[in-house]
Amino acid sequence: MATISPTPQIPGASAEAIAGIAAFRAALPSGAADAPTADGLCVLGRPKHLAKGQTLAPDPDNDRLVYIAQGSAKLIAPMGRGAPINQVLAFHFEGDLVSVPHHNVSAPGGDFRLAALCDCQMVTFPADRFLDIAQGDPMVLRSVLTLSLQALHRSRIRMMQMGHKSAVARIADFLISMADQLADCRSGSCAFALPMTRSDIGHSLGLTIETVSRQLTELREAGLLQTEGRSKICLVDVSALARLAGRLDCQSRLTG
Amino acid sequence: MATISPTPQIPGASAEAIAGIAAFRAALPSGAADAPTADGLCVLGRPKHLAKGQTLAPDPDNDRLVYIAQGSAKLIAPMGRGAPINQVLAFHFEGDLVSVPHHNVSAPGGDFRLAALCDCQMVTFPADRFLDIAQGDPMVLRSVLTLSLQALHRSRIRMMQMGHKSAVARIADFLISMADQLADCRSGSCAFALPMTRSDIGHSLGLTIETVSRQLTELREAGLLQTEGRSKICLVDVSALARLAGRLDCQSRLTG
DNA sequence: CGCAGTCTTGAGACAGATCAACTCACGTGG
DNA sequence: CCACGTGAGTTGATCTGTCTCAAGACTGCG
């Protein structure tokens, strides 16, 4: 990583970069928005523009925090020995602050990367320096902590799904979670565009693309959703999907 | 939650309780060990003794942070509609600080509980007040944040396992993770006692107890481990297990 | 010693992976 | 604007790992 002079010529397309930083500042807890701590963080942040499909260059030395100012991304873990298999750990959208552990060759699965699902604008921070500065304002530190506890909570629930749920249940759960995050919809019907491919969905749920496709077809035939083109999707009844996602009917005794 | 007078008569068995609080204080970042913030936290913490099998009473109002001063515990999520199925989200051991979200009846899977695997001594804190006080000392707040990021990282890796791995791989991974946490062993051979039942293992890995049992038998027959009684286990070659855990051979193409 | 609960082992069923065509969406260039 | 090609998505046939159901054996405790 080349060091960069702190001139007004911030790397990356200037207009977008400034917008990215501005979005980040606006997301800070209101009290801190014009405090020196906020200034410090804004100076520390490196704006980065990623085109669709591009991957944020891994950093071998520092854990990083990445703020997504615009667009959507996936956090992936390359796992392939032979074939390049990218397990998808999480999808992230505008406004998320993502923790990206540093690339650790030795540890198994110690390689996490953030890849853009569409053109997006990010702001990257080295985690330790971010926290050094954030320590200056407990409000900021605390809000980061809250975010990370939320992420932990989401990850745990996700894990719960993964462990015991049938393919339909996973897909249904994925869909309502996307409806929530992309269309801010928790019941009734809604339409939105999925920014990720079937392959991404499969790799995030532990299913093959064939299974993803089949389950979507079944849900369509059951009248629970409609599709248009590759990405546009319309959920007819979010609550019904939630019911499907919640119960762990099939192949899930696991009593004891 | 009843307010409790800050007299020396702390609720719970007194000697153990004091030891619990002392262990917690000792775990705080060294600089803060005798600062007023540490005092505040120690007064806030409620020592609790749990006998083997007991569950920490759920709190409907507050998220909680629970410090495990002694013993080992599992974080579970009751999922059953009909049968009481307890998905195991994580195992925690001495020195861990566990985030336990408050009991939320409406949310699916919004019911997390901490259950003791053996007699153990804990210190519970209401999360918000803990953070209020911890804000007084950025070092403390930051170390909590670091812990939570670690937990997130572990949970993500765990999710990675869950999604795509065969039964053998999950068991192997579970075993080396236990060797690491219980016997501080990362290669070679080591022996320890598993504090949890086959059922707990199964529920944490998304497998049935029968499958857990079968895989352990296979590993034993392959000479990779020895067992004695219900809980004692001896891993002959941790690295070999790690290799098994790492690769995702069977029924796991998921290419794309 | 005997009981209750945990663990092990076996036989068969089924969800989802795999392999293999085939179709369709969407961007490119004529 | 339409023909074309590539990569994404769909659909079908088969295979296999793990769940399920059903005994039986062992551990540890009263």
Strands, helices and their partners?
The structure is a homodimer of 256-residue chains.
Chain A: H1 14-27, H2 36-44, E1 46-50, E2 64-70, E3 72-78, E4 86-93, E5 97-100, E6 113-116, E7 120-126, H3 127-134, H4 138-164, H5 167-183, E8 190-193, H6 198-205, H7 209-221, E9 225-228, E10 232-235, H8 238-246
Antiparallel strand pairs in A: 1-7, 2-5, 2-7, 3-4, 3-6, 8-10, 9-10
Helix pairs in contact in A: 1-2, 2-3, 5-8, 6-7
The structure holds a DNA duplex (30 and 30 nucleotides).
Describe the structure.
- 2 copies of one chain form a homodimer.
- By secondary structure, chain A is α+β, with helices and mostly antiparallel strands.
- Helices cover 41% and strands 21% of the residues of chain A.
- Chain A contains 8 helices and 10 strands.
- In chain A, the strands form 3 sheets. A 4-stranded antiparallel β-sheet of chain A has the order 1-7-2-5. In chain A, strands 4-3-6 form a 3-stranded antiparallel β-sheet. In chain A, strands 8-10-9 form a 3-stranded antiparallel β-sheet.
- In chain A, a hairpin with a 7-residue loop joins strand 3 and strand 4.
- In chain A, helix 1 packs antiparallel against helix 2.
- The termini of chain A are far apart.
- The structure holds a DNA duplex (30 and 30 nucleotides).
